[in-house]
Specification:
mainly alpha; about 260 residues
């Protein structure tokens, strides 16, 4: 079970990548979640899996058709009083609404998913629901609400020691704190991401945290503190031939030196 939970955490961390081809996010994440559910309702689990495959096929071609399918599945799960199936259905409906850019509806479905997770008293599913809510609140620029639910998610995944998911949550919180002017908290979040990333050897996440810390110090006008982070980010991009990153890195380096009077 721990390995499967880590798989889910990894998927959540990489949701942005998987969303480039959304069917992989929905299909793989459902299969992982089903494999740890252990709720013993095989027929309903099969319905969920088949519905996920339907959604992956139709969401790009006809998202309304995908939505109708999941709404019907939700009713089926509610009639069966299968809370796990109801939670999965609400989460999927929320994702479809996001895909349709119907953010208020996405928020409502995500909130309903959270209430189901609370009924189940399932701490990990509550954490995923808080994380999903925080990301939607960020998109609609309701940063105070994003902070509230994001901090709930952070507390849960710290308790569960789910490092991959903590990286996602803390990175989001860094963005939220900056938007709210809570700059020291933003820096603390980015530093935590760096330390956790280092602990599991996640180089990509380490570099992202490194860049965020460097940007933070540049925004503060603290060029001496920014310099090592800017250099480290540029070195990584040069090593990996990341052309966009290289261009930005040299620009940041030049700006840093200009602040230092060089």
């Amino acid at each position: 079970m721990p390995t499967l939970c880590l798989q889910i955490d990894f998927l959540l961390e990489n949701k942005k990548i998987l969303n480039k081809n959304r069917k992989y996010w929905w299909c793989i994440s459902l299969l992982c979640l089903l494999s740890i559910s252990g709720f013993g309702q095989e027929d309903l689990d099969e319905t969920l899996e088949q519905s996920f495959k339907f959604v992956e096929e139709w969401v790009e071609k006809d998202s309304d058709k995908a939505m109708k399918r999941m709404e019907a599945v939700l009713v089926q799960m509610q009639k069966a009083k299968y809370l796990y199936g109801e939670w999965v259905s609400q989460r999927t409906i929320s994702d479809i609404f996001e895909h349709q850019n119907k953010m208020e509806e996405a928020l409502e479905a995500s909130k309903k998913g959270l209430e189901v997770a609370k009924q189940m008293n399932h701490i990990r599913f509550k954490g995923y629901s808080y994380l999903n809510l925080s990301e939607i609140y960020i998109k609609v620029e309701r940063f105070k609400k994003a902070k509230e639910v994001g901090e709930n998610a952070a507390a849960i995944f710290a308790e569960l020691d789910s490092i991959h998911t903590q990286l996602k949550v803390l990175g989001n919180l860094g963005t939220i704190y900056l938007q709210l002017g809570e700059r020291n908290k933003a820096l603390e979040s980015y530093q935590k991401v760096y330390v956790l990333s280092d602990s599991i050897g996640n180089k990509r996440s380490m570099i992202n945290a490194n860049l965020n810390i460097g940007y933070f110090y540049l925004m503060e006008g603290n060029s001496e503190m920014a310099l090592p982070y800017v250099k480290k980010g540029l070195e990584h991009d040069l090593k990996n031939n990341q052309k966009k990153g290289i261009a930005m890195g040299y620009g940041n380096l030049a700006y840093t030196y200009s602040l230092m009077g060089n």
